């Protein structure tokens, strides 16, 4: 039987009841895979030549009651902290996997990022047809760029410019069934391809 990277057991972590119980399941089932992805893809991102990247596996340390409904490994050009920087993520919700470039609310340069992307919208609208955008990293939903059109992208970027808590994420979502059907090599190739297609967007984001 061909080895897969993800299993149904990984995604079902988010069905485990209770904060402590879900955190144990995350630490045992998913975080070792996030650590492996960190080791694999940090050199690829660093080789792009825009700074040395470091992996950051989500620890969910501030949670005291509600168990996390998603988790991820982030990649950013900083050893400590990544949320204030444009960063890449590979992560899971119970329903799907995501690989995205994220600008979240802690970023201090959201107006500049919005302006740079609006000045070159084609860098987003020319991405392959399965790419999505979102305005909130706390929600699982996203819209396909090719279906929602340039207007939705502009709307999210204008909100990023004007609203303090606004965010902007762009990348790919992979349905749970698709993810668990991929062989390990198929998934790693898919992730590498996604990063390579997002790096030109990252270059524009950081100016």
Question: What structural keywords apply?
Answer:
alpha+beta, seven-stranded antiparallel sheet, BirA Bifunctional Protein, domain 2, 7 strands
Topology:
Elements: H1 8-11, H2 19-46, E1 54-57, E2 70-76, E3 87-93, E4 96-103, H3 110-118, H4 122-125, E5 131-134, E6 143-144, H5 145-162, E7 168-175, H6 176-181, H7 184-206
Antiparallel strand pairs: 1-2, 2-3, 3-4, 4-7, 5-6, 5-7
Helix pairs in contact: 3-5, 3-7
Describe the structure.
The chain is an alpha+beta fold and about 210 residues long. It has a single domain (about 10-205), classed as BirA Bifunctional Protein, domain 2. The chain has helices spanning about 10, 20-45, 110-120, 120-125, 145-160, 175-180, 185-205, and strands spanning about 55, 70-75, 85-95, 95-105, 130-135, 145, 170-175. A 7-stranded antiparallel sheet has the order 1-2-3-4-7-5-6. A hairpin with an 8-residue loop joins strand 5 (about 130-135) and strand 6. The model has no long low-confidence stretch (mean pLDDT about 95).
